[in-house]
Structure prediction request, 767 residues.
Amino acid sequence: MTKNIMIVGVGGQGTLLASRILGNAVIGAGLDVKVSEVHGMSQRGGSVVTYVKYGEKVQSPIVDKGCADIILAFEQLEAYRALPYLKEDGRMIVNNQKINPMPVITGAAEYPEGICEKLAEACDLTVVDAAALAAEAGSIKAVNVVLIGVMATSTDIPYEDWIATIRSTVPPKFVEMNVKAFDLGYHLKG
Amino acid sequence: MKKLMLGNAAVARGAYEAGVRVVSSYPGTPSTEITENIVQYEEIYAEWAPNEKVAAEVAIGASIGGARAMSCMKHVGLNVMADPVFTVSYTGVNGGLVFCVADDQGMHSSQNEQDSRHYAKASKIPMLEPSDSAECKEFTKLAYELSEAYDCPMFLRLSTRVSHSQSIVELEERRGDALKDYKKDPAKYVMMPGNAIKRHVYVEERLRRMQEYAETASINTIEENGSKIGVISAGIAYLYAKEALGDKADYLKLGMVYPLPEKKIIDFAAKYEKVYVIEELDPVLEMHCRSLGIEVIGKEAFTLLGEYTPRMIAKAVLGEDGGKVTELGEPIPVRPPVMCAGCPHRGTFYVLKKLGLNVCGDIGCYTLGAVAPLSSIDTTICMGASVSAAMGMAKARGDEFAKKTVSVIGDSTFIHSGITGLIDIVYNKGINTVIILDNSITGMTGHQDNPTTGYTIRGEETKQVNLLTLCKAVGVEHVVVADPFDLKGFEKVVKEETQREEPSVIIAQRPCALLKSVKYSGHCTIGADCKNCKLCMKLGCPAISIKDGKPFIDESQCNGCGLCTGVCPFGCIKKED
Prediction:
């Protein structure tokens, strides 16, 4: 069986980097892995979706509707949009940030109310104030790594492999800060 | 050593290991990262060419000169380079020559969804199609072997999901990259009728031999699971089929999609009660099977549009519905891409919208000028068409229409194929106004240098094409440089230039806000004295939205570019450091 993870957010939020860290942690654990990314126009502030799949043998790089074991959402509306992709017993992790899309900005549409409450009724949900935890770790930019820390508890990849991946991926002077950010997410009581 | 690699990076690695010496490309999603990844290999000469035709010709020249060479482009780039491609099929190669073309099923970042496999058949150039990163590297290397063995250029067909997915690749060493001898050989390389007639004979004979090769090629594989269902597939669609059907089907996976192994296909198909051809976009494999008299199920079960998924295939072939899908039924606002906060194009389109001009658009981030609230652009066809299509509209509707119409085109796109349209306007007495959106970089594909930036792909300083001198040199007498963030000044320039009875060019100069050299600081805030006129909302800035009935600037989204301070008629928006 493969583990299917979807990372969703808004272009510019750093979802691509998150999926690459995840991919490298998996390869560190000696498993087959595929990571599907989005480049080009859709990155310009639009909805972005990346997929990470791992297991003994991974075929296609995409995750279908009803097939995601974990959805890691960097933004509430994108979590809501991604819900149909979650498996019946899947886990949704949502950063509590809200970013208005252009139709909301122009008044053509409304940002749905109470997304987290609705998601909590529909699935196994963890809401994270990742910005606050990242700030506690030392930089608001570590939102990425906080969220990966939360997600890591739902994978069978050993803690040490995650830490080793962070050490090998981020520049030396940011290692301690990022490890702290990962730990804050990893030990979050949800 | 094993490494997690993007499909595009694996193609670059394959080129490196195959001893490639020259790579020339024009950026285009989803192909761009192949050439960007080539740069890390110092042994390879790499360049961004002004357009795909030039890129292909540079690669062709390198091949004739004895080097292994490559050119990479997106599907629509293949249209631009089609001219040399059809003839290099006749000349053949000296050093191996591979054209990597990346299709964009689902149009993630493209203006159409064309299927480049048609080009393989039309130009009689063989085409390999990998499914994942490991095959990207393996097939690239094989393409060079075949290219030299059969004196034939080769296509490597990619797609968004292959180019932009990472999977595991085993790295190997680079083979030698010795140049082959160069000998003058006009019968082979000078394609005038007397020579080309003879080369055409060779092309047909080569195709026959390639087809023989296809019958036993190791990349055309059969996987038997004892099923009554046979699946013929290739590329990414094969992986979707494999995931959906597992061992409930037998597979003929075609690594070579042109020419096809006809005998192998006939023998395979004969064994099954039902044979499905699973391929995204056009029924290329399907029609070939039908032409061989094989009864297959293809596009009657699968769509011609967009990307496939395993779930879709399981439903069509097995009638299985797949796992439960939770839908809450509430409409969810779409989140289309938007111009970034601080984007220089925002000023330009704000002014064009205000003046109510017809706008012929082009290919780049600025195509987003078509989206609300800026809603300025009337047409977008292909690279360069903004300039020439506006000329055509003016010739159809007359000078008064021309004075209410502008073309907008980026700096890189202008060099790619806008300059020729401008020459048409000058030569044929047009009076159009062309606005070159000079943001100092090729933006949409992720910041590639181009002939107007003054730097090469490796970041080395080079001669910079001066847009102002270039436009003057082709005969445009009125060329004005203006800052699109000086809204009043820019509006005045647009009004003046569009009223002229002769051609004019406005160079809207302000760098892309995402460039490291651009340092906006602080952020803007809307004061309590806001009159709620909502004029600032017309900018379509992602940082400005309505909160409690009034415009509000989200500091986390604002980069302090300050454009909005010039829009507020009451001076209520201030910049804070």
Chain B has a mean pLDDT of 96. The CA atoms of residues 96 and 333 of chain B lie 50 Å apart. The first strand of chain B starts at residue 2 and ends at 6.
